[in-house]
Amino acid sequence: STQSTWDILKMEGGKKILGENTFLKTSPANHVDPSYEKYLPDVPPPIPLSEAELYSVFYEKKEDILKANCLGFDTTEGVVKMLDKETTEKQRSVTGEIISRVAKGLFKTNAIGMSLPCILFESRSETDRLAELWRLECYYLTKAANTVDKLERIKLVAAAEIAANYIGLRKMKSFNPMLGETFQCKMADGSDVSVEQISHHPPITAYYVVGPKNSYVHFGNEEYVGSFKGNYFNFSFVTRCKLRFRDGQELVWSHRPYIKIGGLMFGETYMVIKGSQMIYDKKNKIKIALFFDYGEKKGLLTSKKSVPKDRVEGLIYVPNEAAPISDGQEKRIEDLTDVKKEIARIKGSWFESITINDVNYWNIDKMLPLKMTLPKEPLPSDCRYREDLIWLRRNNIPNADAWKDALEIRQRQDRALREKHEKKKQYLTI
Fold first, then answer.
1. Which of 221, 235, 353, 405 could be bridged to 206 by S-S, CB 3.0 to 4.6 A?
2. What is this structure's pTM?
3. Are the C-beta atoms of residues 138 and 370 closer than 8 Å to each other?
4. Which candidate, 378, 410, 423, 404, places its Cα nearest to that of 54?
5. What are the residue ranges of helices labelled H in 104-207?
6. What DSSP character marks residue 177?
7. Which residue has the higher pLDDT, 95 or 399?
8. What is the pLDDT of residue 357?
9. Continuous H helices in 298-351
């Protein structure tokens, strides 16, 4: 017979749980190699997600995102707050144990790699969460590609970087991607987005975005770094990416802002975006500096005045190339030390609107994200085939936990094998 043991197991498990429904192939990496059978849980794999289930996690309006995640926006403080008390208590029940493990030195470098129960997760992977941010990014980048005014392009890129942030608002953590996991989608403007997990530890996700008719290419990778700081958690990014337009104009990112989640153990649970972002067009000698939650500002008559945390300010300018390269420690425009000539001022909120030199470039209520289309037959490594993710989306926590544990054990075993053969310098030649 050409059927593997696991093929037969799938069929038997499927008949017991789901009648005569036929299983489509789910992540073949889990099943093709017979050596992986020893890591399989005692529960069967689920049938793949339906089209309705696939699209059920994507929203367009801010109200829908907030409502679906039981979140609220405090306009006075400028922070997103958790309104779901039940979810908060569940998260806190696990957070205490996590912090205890950190204190014991079990996770000295990066808390992102911790193994957590599915009750803390949204039924999505970080691969598709990352791809979804381009629903607004692609809108602006395509618009930028269609103009020959290089300064206008810079302004549109700045608007894109601020506007896309709210799309990622969620009350739950996404799954850490498996090594080699992928996600693909096409935006309504014709842009193609491809994402792949290229490193297990540290966790690094690569992406490649191609605009309509190859008008631009946006590519690079993001390394995720998490750290506990008492009652809050910082989620930051090590960014390596470029944006290249068809006519050769190229922009390079040096760093991004980070996300702070407070109230992990007590008080209200909230989220805010903090820090700075730098983008540089070296050929045309133009730089973008963006500052999120820039704190207190000096007033005209008073020494300082408070500013809501969702506020963003920025500067587009010609830099003094003799000045030191930014290290990301600047908190506001006044901290910049390399400004040679100011071109434009950016003001606004990442949850409201953005103006550049008093011209509106984005309004959250008027400019909705592009619709995205998922391929009918994606790569077998697509995150939609993850068994833990599918079971969680169907609210079967025990089965989701069983598959999550099995997949993590297999991934750790794979990592051990890579390290073993790296030491021996044994490589497979194809």
1. 221
2. 0.84
3. yes
4. 378
5. 126-132, 134-145, 150-163
6. P
7. 399
8. 97
9. none
